[in-house]
Amino acid sequence: MKEEYRSYIEEAYDIVKHAANVIGPRLPGGENERKFAKYMADKLGAIGIKAKTEPFAVSPRASIGGIPYIGTFGFIVSILIYFAFGIGALWYGMALFTCATWFWIISSVFLYKRWCDEFFPRCKSQNTYGELLPPDGKYDYTIFLSGHTDTSWNWNHSVKTYVHKRNIMVGVIGIYAKVGFGAVCYVFLTLVCVFMAFMRCPWFYDLAWRNAIADSAAYHNFVAALHFLPLITAWGCSFLYMWNNKKEENASPGAMDNATGIGLSYAVTKYFHDNPEKMPKNCRIIDFNCGAEEAGLRGSMAFADEHRGQDILKNAWNINIDSVADAEYFEVVIKDDWQFTRFDKDLEQMFKDTFKELQIESKTGGCIHNPVGGCDSTPFTKAGVKSVTFAAQNPMLTYYYHTFRDTPDRFSPETVGLGFEVVLGVIDKIAKFQEEHGYNGVNN
Q1: Which of 323, 355, 365, 387 could cross-link 393 (Cys pair, CB 3.0–4.6 Å)?
Q2: Domains within the chain, CATH numbers bracketed
Q3: Mean pLDDT confidence for 87-92
């Protein structure tokens, strides 16, 4: 660690400790998320950068936070099957309901679409950001340093794998077994409801193959089995119900994910504020504290929608910093598979070159796809901004990812400090790229 960086790295780690230990869990749209955004706005104000706050509406449970609803729905449908034996019309409603929930699950939980947000309780979140201009006030391009202020609900199945922390795969298999069994149970319930609705519908009574099924021994055995199968599906769906804890006090304190991203974004911004001679030529730097990432990237989506086509997103780069804590897993995230979004190849190479220069060796080879969910690089990329996500995080499910065990004592300031050096190295490469392209490199 260079001595000139020490105070900035210490401040970044202090932000991590304050966020996790003093403010605590910060669920999307919650009071603690607002406290952290205000805390960072005040820190920007202390160095003469006026922070701007842009509120937006969010439905925290419409996306991944709503997984427990699936378990509740599955349990209710399992019970209703016994009533449907006597009230045949129930099958129609159950079939319609389970199919509708799959529309929500696929569009919102998996793909992060906002189509179903209006059907869930809404609250207010915010994006908070401040800009650092070059000494002469003139700029031709913008570098965003972004991280998200919110944290995740505690994932109950993950936190229990702490007993397997020396053999992560054992814990991972247990998580997938429970959740996978629950998912299979809900799929089965949907198929049963649709099939029984079809068999009971008078419109299809004249179909020969329908009647052949109704008269078969297999069908009668299946109906008989339905008298005990709901007990199994109700049990399986309970694993989905237990996916996360709805209480904020039990949520993740978010030291790694993502107070590290917020702390590093601020520390790098402050470094250039204090050392204007090292500021990239013709460059504006924006410290962007994004809200409600854990609710389906709602903050970055709101920002992209609000400013699409405006100056702030023109000729712009986004270094999205999300979870810098695991020293053996420095990586650049180049794609959100579930969002069908490939991030910027120039930034990808800049990170890889910087890792090499700093002699960083990673178990992931320094590059990964985001296997599930999404990150804030996706809305920026779709808005025309060159973006990737920088992380130092074990990509496997772990006992600390999205659990109450995501605390500062788990990782060292030195890891955060190495992240600081990586970001400075990439900014230097962006500056050279812009100079070579006449300060219009993004749009050419």
Answers
A1: 323
A2: 3-61+123-153+249-436 (3.40.630.10), 65-111+162-245 (no CATH)
A3: 93
